[in-house]
Specification:
By secondary structure, the chain is mainly beta. The chain is 0% helix and 48% strand. A six-stranded mixed beta sheet has the order 2-10-9-4-5-6, with no helix packed on it. A four-stranded antiparallel beta sheet has the order 1-3-8-7, with no helix packed on it.
C-alpha cells in the first residue's frame, strides 16, 4: 500500500509563492506519472498539473506559467512550486498517480489572502 504525505502549504498573500511536497512510500513511484490536484471549499477536486515518469509536464490553463511541477525519484517525492499566487488558488492540494490512483493523502491547505 502506497501512502502519500503532502506538505508545504500555508497562508500567503496574493502574489506570493509556496513550494508543496508530496512524499510517497513504496518502490513503484519512479515508474508512475504523478499529478497534483486541488479542492476548494464547496467544489470538486480538480486537476492542476502532471509529470510523467520521464519528466514531461502538463498544466491546467489556470496555473500555466505560474506553477511548476517536478519530481525527485531518488526521494520518491513530487513538488509543486507555486508563484504569483491568487486568491482563487486557495484550496487543499493533493498529489496522486495519474492512473490506478492510490489512497488519497490528507492534503495540504493553501490559503491566499487578497
Amino acid at each position: 500500500q502506497v501512502h502519500l504525505v503532502e506538505s508545504g502549504g500555508g497562508l500567503v498573500q496574493a502574489g506570493g509563492s509556496l513550494r508543496l511536497s508530496c512524499a510517497a512510500s513504496g518502490s513503484v513511484f519512479s515508474t508512475k506519472d504523478m499529478g497534483w490536484y486541488r479542492q476548494a471549499p464547496g467544489k470538486r477536486r480538480e486537476f492542476v498539473a502532471r509529470i510523467s515518469a520521464g519528466g514531461s509536464t502538463i498544466y491546467d490553463y489556470s496555473v500555466k506559467g505560474r506553477f511548476t511541477i517536478s519530481r525527485d525519484n531518488a526521494k520518491n517525492t513530487v513538488y509543486l512550486k507555486m508563484n504569483s499566487l491568487k486568491s482563487e488558488d486557495t484550496a487543499v492540494y493533493y498529489c496522486n498517480a495519474i492512473t490506478n490512483l492510490w489512497p488519497w493523502g490528507q492534503g495540504t491547505q493553501v490559503t491566499v489572502s487578497a
